[in-house]
User: Which sequence fits this backbone?
């Protein structure tokens, strides 16, 4: 009887330790959700700019830290040439949907079992070489996030497409030195506005 009681006590202790670890001591588990839409533009004084909605998620009860973020953009057909940009600012939206400055980009503390959403502004500066000019075609966007003490970032890759009409519009804004943004969907499987047949609806959205 004493032996059984001892075993039960030990098992109870082990269960308590495991429960304590998963509820209080487990290391932060950070990840990032990007998009679903980004905005790109050419600043009036040159260069290239990107606004990226990023939601940082912590699935652990312990607070985690996003130390910094960066972005790589490259043409899908030319992966050997990648444009890397570090984050610069956090942005917000005005009532007219134009962007407004909130604060300089900085490390973010993400409380346990929570999420923090930010619009991150990154730029390829006008004096950087070579120029970053997008043309019609498929592109890959990779958001790099450095979490905690990790030396290497976690990478979140997505694709976007520049069609002929979008390139023409961007070229016009660039020639006219207008910092007007263009919206792009990431990993676009279906257009933002599209009339669907019943077959298309079932194949894309389910019954």
Assistant:
């Amino acid at each position: 009887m004493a032996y059984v009681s001892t075993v039960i006590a030990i098992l109870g202790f082990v269960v308590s330790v495991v429960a304590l670890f998963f509820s209080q001591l487990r290391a932060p588990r950070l990840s990032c959700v990007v998009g679903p839409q980004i905005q790109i533009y050419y600043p009036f004084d040159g260069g290239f700019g990107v606004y990226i909605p990023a939601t940082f998620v912590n699935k652990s009860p312990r607070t985690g830290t996003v130390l910094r973020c960066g972005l790589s953009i490259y043409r899908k057909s030319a992966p050997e040439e990648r444009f890397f940009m570090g984050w610069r600012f956090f942005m917000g939206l005005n009532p007219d949907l134009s962007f407004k400055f909130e604060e300089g980009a900085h490390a973010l503390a993400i409380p346990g079992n929570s999420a923090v959403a930010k619009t991150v502004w990154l730029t390829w500066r006008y004096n950087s070489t070579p120029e970053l000019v997008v043309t019609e075609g498929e592109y890959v966007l990779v958001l790099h996030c450095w979490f905690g003490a990790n030396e290497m970032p976690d990478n979140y890759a997505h694709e976007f497409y520049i069609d002929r009409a979008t390139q023409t519009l961007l070229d016009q804004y660039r020639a006219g030195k207008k910092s007007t943004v263009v919206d792009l969907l990431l990993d676009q499987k279906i257009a933002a506005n599209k009339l669907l047949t019943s077959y298309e609806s079932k194949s894309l959205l389910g019954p």
